[in-house]
Amino acid sequence: MNAQISFIEGQFSLIHIPLSLYPAFLHPLLRILLPHGGPSPACPNEPEGLLEGLSIDKKHGFLNISVTPIECSVVCHTSWAKNVFEPVIKRLPKESSEQVSISKDTYIVFSVSSAGMEAGQRVMDLTAPLAMAGIPIFFITTYYTDFILVPSKDRQTVGQALVARGFEFSEYDSAYVAPISVSHSRGTSSSSDPPSTPPPSNVAELQTRTFTQLKKRKVVPFVEPGLHLVQCSGKELINDDGYSSRPGSNGIGVHGHSENCWLDSIDPKLYVGLISALVQQPKFLSLTLAQDDAPSLLVDKSLLWLFGNSIAGDTEGDLVPIFLDLVDLPLESTGIVCGVAGKLVDEMRFNERGAAHGSELSYLSTARAGAVILSSEGSEMALRALAPLIETGW
């Protein structure tokens, strides 16, 4: 695997919103989706642009909004959690406000650029070093990039774990680079704050622990009948000179402004589609915005018509998510992503058709749940593989 892991600047929060309270949070969801950078309606003397986590052209360094059959989940810069979501939570009745949660600990996000490896193997190889170092992680696969979230307090341990697995830190790229295959044997950890339970010694032990924990918490994998997804991307706008309007391309927006303007770098049709989808509380929609990527979308196929020609990708694809409701597991649980994805990769390799489906496996972590996304046929195989493992604990 040739992977490069780069940290995204900023501290981030995970927000859990139960679906019953989704309507109360529609306005803050739209507000972070459309960060115009002008004066805030609530505080006209304080421009929204003063909130941290936005680039000079008013783009989020990282943002994920996911609506699933289990919850609405948001990963956003901590300043947006505090200034946009907390005021709404405080206005709710006590019994309702207690159902919404913002992570007490902050998280850091790093992006993973990799090539030459099937997606399922990539998920496992990128999460294994951290899981075996006892670091809890959240994993988000997008159209362009993989993103991993880890607690901010574990940043130094992350670096140590990656170096122990053969990654090298590149000062030039400010990133960890793995020019060779990642090893799954346990490396030594010099963390100053070791986990209370010793980390597993290998991936097999990690998988055993994962399914024992899922069985103990009575987590049953399930699919939502009739729900089919596509993974796609918002198209980049091209200005009159034929240049991309993404930041850094030529500094000129589609309207010829010399200054960076957020409206110059978005496709209105894409955002109208997103707003329309969010307003109707979709059965499934996961949007990821990252400063260096075009918008990435994992969406219910029945909503594609809202986006017209503003998206690119295999819109004829047929992906099915397998959900794991992790509401009863603590946020600091380790190894769930790697254990589940790793076991599926192994199981599919033993299946004579595994190679055809393993390459399509991806993963979405939300605040209180996980979703393994595969082809329609691959999901049937995965359910058959997962169910008995969870029933027996292995």
UniProtKB/TrEMBL annotation:
Residues 103-162 form the CASTOR ACT domain. It comes from Amorphotheca resinae ATCC 22711. It comes from the Eukaryota. Residues 183-203 are annotated as: Disordered. InterPro entries: ACT-like_dom_sf, CASTOR_ACT_dom, CASTOR_mTORC1. One of its GO terms (biological process) is carboxylic acid biosynthetic process. Pfam families: ACT_7 (PF13840). This is CASTOR ACT domain-containing protein. SUPFAM superfamilies: ACT-like. Residues 183-194 have a biased composition (Low complexity).
